[in-house]
């Protein structure tokens, strides 16, 4: 792919002087720890004089001592400190040693450094040669060459490859050293059961491990155990060999993948399908991951992917019925409720089937996603988290996620970075995701050299210490092995891992696109490439794994009637049918209100020290409960608490939601004397209540809203809420709103119960910061009474407004949500005297009523609040308009005329009154 990374690490030199000069930065802690812990017997504070080099000082011991000295010079004996300091200052061989005065036993023995001249150089050479070999091994581990036999998009332009190790100029070794035997460090497994090897064999085994069809990036991981685990998987001799049965299974899967693409190409050659030609090994790769995960106990796999290869994945991995796939291409076939638009590349699928490798049932799910490529990543993570939560899978052993990516999008889309950063957060982790990158080495028509600044498209994964396995996708056996290791890594460490399938795209961006316009040299080479299946079959025939006749039989059996690949039956279901939005009574008993209110005003944990300011807040809540009143925060407590008491899970997520941005919520209490000791009173309402999840998110809107959308997807009966600190925060999350929420039902026949809380109005902080831009949401609505989701605008100025309180009477059994709140003042009893009827919503109501009172116009002006704008309450608005027959009709809002609600409500009010009265 790209030239060898030269900025990651400077290869470790040999002499102590060069080593000290080049390693200006500390040696990675994991390496130092590994070197130290590998020497069980010696003590680092042993004087140099008592360990003469001529008596066989271990090179590993000297190496360990040197790294320990680099970390902390005082951690070694003074004699070693002097030796390393002298060597670092440029002392010639033999002159670095200088005995400290307190160690001198006789003046003749340690009078000067010249006492060792003549004996030291050979010992230093021994130490330096061993360090050189260790440096050489590390160089291979750090700088893997995975471009061997891979079609490199840049090879015709930038000739870059991994140079052969230069033994003399870099390492100080010579050709004559190739047959010398060197002791291997504990940070390699190339020796197998041998602890020492000739240099020639060391280089050969390193080449086999790191410079063939697999390249491994892992040395940036700061965990010694994890690094050693990876080394063992790739360095142990013979570990990558496939069994005969594995090769035959792999062949069958390659045939399925390839023949599916060939059939679609023959049948619908002019249709866009974003086929998998050039990366057919993706199908056996995914199946290997699923097989290995099933053997480890995984019962459900949730996947997300872009359009390339999606049809093949649906058919051969998820097992969607072929008739449902082909009907997207053939006008003679009817699609059954498949949504609208370019859905053949974007629809999802759910299927439960037996895994033949593990003999266990598995549920496979591919989440529907839009053309906005990586937007599905956090949605998949949220859905995975929800399934783990509802089945009690606290460690991710039963439910897991797989995300597929294109190389250009993986490097270019910021949502990838945001999603990675959720991977280890307690309330968002899915305990490890396997990322598979289909690395075409091109983004539509854009070369990597102008598409990213990083050497590899996968470098973003390094921020969370995820190992990255590059593999030549033209080598199915290497692909299968890498995928087995990736699945084992996820099962062992429950952390993210990336598989980079370095491949090519045989056709253009789609099947009717001409790639020669922009990549002529690359596609001249592609036309000469043998197909992956053809090369693999030739290899297996040469090895005697299959015969030509057996292969032809497999090809024949893979075809069903009329050339359709044969599969077992499967089924297609919607992911949860939502209930109607018809709202029953929302009231609860007075006893329940008082109980929840008292919980909200208490600290239900003994010996828990709370902040003094919070004590006053809780006391204020208790006073309101005694007066049978609720402000905004307590009303929210009543709503959540009553749902929890009924067994309905509530999850509230977003930036700083635990306390509340404006310090009004305080759903999580913190002990003032003990770190990490917290209390969530909402979870103490009832012994058999549902759990309440409230979690501060990372400083992200796009990924977190996508995550919560995916979480809500798993259970339509749960209340899942995402709160933005300010109204404008949804600007950054607009992609999720546009691509998933507003279009979900029309495009993918999916409804979702996600609730968006946007706590801001026009609060004097500027139109870009204050406004929640309600006009955007209203433009998305279609006035269908069964529309989801719910958008709640909660201006912060109302959180503590003295008039913004509700009585318990408004919450008792028999009460309902009020779509419209009439004016219940003087105007209600004398409607004929009312000269103006003002419709409004939100906090502007309190400003209008205050001004009406100040001007003494209580009988002349009626103010009516429309609490539900969509679906529009035509019936109730008509009642109010008819109630005030002599009044002018006015709509009032804070926002500019082209912002807010005006353009939405005006035609609807006109329709309500039959266009007989003007509206201001």
Automatic annotation (TrEMBL):
One of its GO terms (molecular function) is thiamine pyrophosphate binding. GO terms for biological process: glycolytic process; tricarboxylic acid cycle. This is 2-oxoglutarate dehydrogenase complex component E1. It catalyses: N(6)-[(R)-lipoyl]-L-lysyl-[protein] + 2-oxoglutarate + H(+) = N(6)-[(R)-S(8)-succinyldihydrolipoyl]-L-lysyl-[protein] + CO2. Keywords: Calcium, Glycolysis, Isopeptide bond, Magnesium, Metal-binding, Mitochondrion, Nucleus, Oxidoreductase, Signal, Thiamine pyrophosphate, Transit peptide, Ubl conjugation. Its main location: mitochondrion. It comes from Astatotilapia calliptera (Eastern happy). Belongs to the alpha-ketoglutarate dehydrogenase family. InterPro entries: 2-oxogl_dehyd_N, 2oxoglutarate_DH_E1, DH_E1, KGD_C_sf, ODO-1/KGD_C, THDP-binding, Transketolase-like_Pyr-bd. Residues 630-801 form the Transketolase-like pyrimidine-binding domain. The keyword Transit peptide applies. The keyword Oxidoreductase applies. GO terms for cellular component: mitochondrion; nucleus; oxoglutarate dehydrogenase complex. It is found in: Mitochondrion; Nucleus. Its EC number is 1.2.4.2. Residues 1-22 form the signal peptide. Its cofactor is Mg(2+); thiamine diphosphate.
């Amino acid at each position: 792919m790209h030239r060898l990374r030269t900025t990651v690490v400077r290869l470790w030199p040999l002499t102590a002087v060069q080593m000290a000069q080049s390693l200006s930065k500390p040696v990675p802690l994991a390496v130092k720890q590994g070197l130290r812990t590998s020497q069980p017997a010696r003590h680092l504070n042993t004087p140099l004089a008592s360990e003469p080099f001529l008596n066989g000082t271990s090179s590993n011991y000297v190496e360990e001592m040197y790294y320990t000295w680099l970390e902390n010079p005082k951690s070694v004996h003074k004699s070693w400190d002097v030796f390393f300091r002298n060597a670092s200052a440029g002392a010639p061989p033999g002159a670095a040693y200088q005995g400290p005065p307190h160690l001198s036993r006789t003046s003749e023995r340690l009078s000067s450094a010249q006492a060792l001249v003549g004996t030291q150089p050979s010992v230093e050479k021994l130490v330096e040669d061993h360090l050189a070999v260790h440096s050489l091994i590390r160089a291979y581990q750090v700088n893997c060459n995975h471009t061997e036999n891979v079609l490199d998009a840049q090879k015709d332009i930038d000739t870059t490859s991994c140079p052969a190790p230069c033994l003399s100029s870099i390492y100080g070794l010579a050709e004559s050293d190739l047959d010398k035997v060197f002791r291997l460090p504990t940070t390699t497994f190339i020796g197998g059961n041998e602890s020492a090897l000739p240099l020639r064999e060391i280089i050969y085994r390193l080449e086999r491990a790191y410079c063939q069809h697999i390249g491994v990036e892992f040395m940036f991981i700061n965990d010694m155990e994890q690094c050693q685990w990876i080394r063992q998987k790739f360095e142990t001799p013979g570990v990558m060999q496939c069994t005969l049965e594995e090769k035959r299974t792999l062949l069958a899967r390659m045939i399925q993948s390839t023949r599916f693409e060939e059939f679609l190409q023959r049948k619908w050659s002019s249709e866009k399908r974003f086929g998998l030609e050039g990366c057919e090994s993706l199908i056996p790769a995914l199946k290997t991951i699923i097989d290995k995960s099933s053997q480890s106990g995984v019962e459900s796999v949730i996947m997300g992917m872009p359009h390339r290869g999606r049809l093949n994945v649906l058919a051969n991995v998820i097992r969607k019925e072929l008739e449902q796939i082909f009907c997207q291409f053939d006008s003679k076939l009817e699609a059954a409720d498949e949504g609208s638009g370019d859905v053949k590349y974007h629809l999802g699928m759910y299927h439960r089937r037996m895994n033949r490798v593990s003999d266990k049932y598995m549920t496979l799910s591919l989440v529907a996603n839009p053309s906005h490529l990586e937007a599905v990543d956090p949605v998949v993570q949220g859905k995975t988290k929800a399934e783990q939560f509802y089945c009690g899978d606290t460690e991710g052993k039963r439910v897991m996620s797989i995300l597929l990516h294109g190389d250009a999008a993986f490097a270019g889309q910021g949502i990838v970075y945001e999603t990675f950063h959720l991977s280890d957060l307690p309330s968002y982790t899915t305990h490890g995701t396997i990322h598979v990158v289909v690395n075409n080495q091109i983004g539509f028509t854009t070369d990597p050299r102008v598409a990213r600044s990083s050497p590899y498209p996968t470098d973003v994964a390094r921020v969370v210490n995820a190992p990255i396995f590059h593999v030549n996708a033209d080598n199915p056996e290497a692909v299968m092995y890498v995928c087995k290791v990736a699945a084992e890594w996820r099962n062992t460490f429950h952390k993210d891992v990336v598989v980079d399938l370095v491949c090519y795209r045989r056709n253009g961006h789609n099947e009717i696109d001409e790639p020669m316009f922009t990549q002529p040299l690359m596609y001249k080479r592609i036309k000469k490439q043998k197909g992956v299946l053809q090369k693999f079959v030739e290899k297996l025939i040469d090895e005697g794994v299959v015969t030509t006749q057996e292969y032809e039989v497999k090809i024949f059996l893979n075809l069903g009637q009329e050339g359709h690949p044969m599969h077992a039956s499967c089924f297609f279901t919607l992911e949860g049918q939502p209930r109607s939005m018809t709202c029953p009574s929302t009231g609860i008993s007075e006893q329940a209100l008082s109980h929840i209110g008292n919980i909200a005003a208490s600290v239900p944990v003994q010996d828990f020290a709370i902040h003094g300011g919070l004590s006053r807040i809780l006391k204020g809540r208790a006073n309101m409960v005694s007066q049978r009143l609720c402000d905004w925060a307590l009303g929210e407590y009543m709503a959540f608490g009553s749902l929890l008491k009924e067994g309905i899970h509530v999850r509230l997520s977003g930036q700083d939601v635990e306390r509340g941005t404006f310090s009004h919520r305080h759903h999580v209490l913190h002990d003032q004397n003990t770190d990490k000791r917290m209390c969530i009173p909402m979870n103490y309402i009832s012994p058999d209540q549902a759990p309440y999840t409230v979690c501060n998110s990372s400083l992200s809107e796009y990924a977190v809203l996508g995550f919560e959308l995916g979480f809500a997807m798993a259970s339509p009966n749960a209340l899942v809420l995402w709160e933005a600190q300010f109204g404008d925060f949804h600007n950054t999350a607009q992609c999720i709103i546009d691509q998933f929420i507003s279009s979900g039902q029309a495009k993918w026949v999916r409804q979702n119960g996600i609730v968006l809380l946007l706590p801001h109005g026009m609060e004097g902080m500027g139109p870009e910061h204050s406004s929640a831009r309600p006009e955007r949401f209203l433009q998305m609505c279609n006035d269908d009474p069964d529309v989801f989701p719910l958008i709640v605008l909660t201006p912060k100025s109302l959180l503590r407004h003295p008039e913004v309180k509700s009585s318990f009477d408004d919450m008792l059994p028999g009460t309902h949500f009020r779509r419209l709140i009439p004016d219940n003042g003087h105007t209600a009893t004398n409607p004929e005297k009312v000269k103006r009827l003002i419709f409004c919503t939100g906090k502007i109501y309190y400003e209008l009523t205050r001004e009406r009172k100040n001007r003494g116009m209580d009988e002349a002006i009626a103010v009516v609040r429309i609490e539900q704008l969509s679906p529009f309450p035509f019936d109730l608005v008509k009642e109010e308009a008819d109630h005030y027959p002599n009044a002018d009709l006015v709509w009032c809002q804070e926002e500019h005329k082209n912002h807010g609600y005006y353009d939405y409500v005006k035609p609807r009010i006109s329709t309500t009154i039959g266009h007989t009265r003007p509206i201001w």
